Amino acid sequence: MWRVHRHIGMGGDRIVKAIAGEDVERDHGDALRAAQPEEFKRLRDECVPLEGAHDLIVELKRRGLVVALASSSNQDDLDHFLDALEVRDVVDAWTTSDDVERTKPYPDVIQVALEKAGTSDAVMVGDSRWDIEAAARAGLETVCVITGGWSEQELCDHGAVAVFESLVSLREHLDETPLGRD
Fold first, then answer.
1. Please, are residues 103 and 12 in contact by the beta-carbon 8 Å criterion?
2. Residue 151's domain is classified under what CATH number?
3. What's the structural domain count of the chain?
């Protein structure tokens, strides 16, 4: 389980090999990826938004920032989570797995999100090494929260410019981050 947990946030096109190795990727990778949507859909309703997620997005928009979600989810899952967060009419742009060939840690999903949002001036909000690496490859800084199982030190070691305990704490301290600075 620790291997699985440490790779959450890495794109599905890369995760089988990263967790289980080349032999499993070669012998079962395509079948595992094909089964993933139905397996996840059975559990999806158990996923609830993190405390403060909706309020953070609303606050970013209130401050006049463009908000784009760089997701490699399929459209059905993304629709579910946009509705669960109640932000469909708040965010400016989002991506799905249909928009990119390569997922995190590659920057493709971030670059497409920026294109869709019509900006290149951005800061990534993430919670994993994969977010930080993808953002850095896209030329962006990353502000992190400790919700992905990575410690503050690990996130800083990978390049996070700031790390917060929660989305609530991040919202309360936005002015201390690149998100809140002019």
1. yes
2. 3.40.50.1000
3. 2
Let me know whether 85 and 160 are in one domain.
Answer: yes
Angle at 6 between CA 84 and CA 158, to 5 degrees: 100
The model's pLDDT over 105-115, given as tens digits with 9 standing for 90+, comes to 999 999 999 99
Structure tokens at 147: 């919700």
| Cα gap 113→93, rounded to integer Å | 6
pTM recorded for the entire structure: 0.88
> Are 126 and 164 within one domain?
yes
Reported residue count of the chain is: 182
In this structure, is the dihedral angle defined by the CA atoms of residues 148, 83, 51 and 179, taken in order, positive or negative? Answer: positive
* Bond into 105 cis (ω within 30): yes
Q: Give the pLDDT confidence of 124-167 residue by residue, as tens digits.
A: 999 999 999 999 999 999 999 999 889 999 999 999 999 999 99
